[in-house]
Amino acid sequence: MQPSVESLVRLLESYRGRDKVIRTVCYGSQLVGGVLSQKVETDVSSHRLGKRLLLFSAQLSHCRTVLRLFDDLSMLAYSHSYGLGGGEEDAGVRLVSLLTNVADQLYYPCEHIAWAADAELIKGKSDKWWLLSTVLWGTSLLLGILRSLRVLLLLKKKLKRYERGGGGNSRSQLRRQMQREVLSILSSMADLCNAIHWMPPGFLWAGRFPNWLVGLMGTISSLIGLIQVNAGDSDETDSP
Known about the structure:
By secondary structure, this protein is mainly alpha-helical. It has helices at about 5-15, 15-35, 45-65, 70-80, 90-120, 125-165, 170-195, 210-230. The longest helix is centred in the middle third of the chain and has 39 residues, at about 125-165. Its main location: membrane.
């Protein structure tokens, strides 16, 4: 078996890896489907294929929502292990990380209630719960960007000290850490664009993205997530 196939199999055998693959296929299908569905009605075959890809993408998104019903305990375990962030050297990073954990922990039950309302398992409208979960997700993304920017600033200061005092191995390690933070910022910014799109109309560019642009932003974020998993950086929480 080819090494690339073996890597894919190992990725699919883990829950986090499988979720990231499903997420990538979901947004990739929305990207291609959005482009094809915009073709003129005379190109019937492409238009029909685009619609089917959009339906496929919606089903994969629903699949991920159902799978996240079981993520509360893992998120709680992560928050408990992080505690008050005593292991963080910087107070700013600690504060932002704590707020991010709170937003992530609250996100899951809000999404579960919205899903249950849509499935008619409970009475009530799901709109306000979907909105609240989107606000919490966007808040988490924004906090994640702020955290990565702060970490980048701290790493740059360390890098300058090492450049004056030598230490080639330490410099290369710091540069790799900085690259990971830059990728995290790009991923979170792409997801934040979509989170704002799913807010109520009138808020910034809410509701203005076509399907292909939502798919593009999600695909960028998902591919970065796959890169981070392959690099061993898979400790991040799931994103819708």
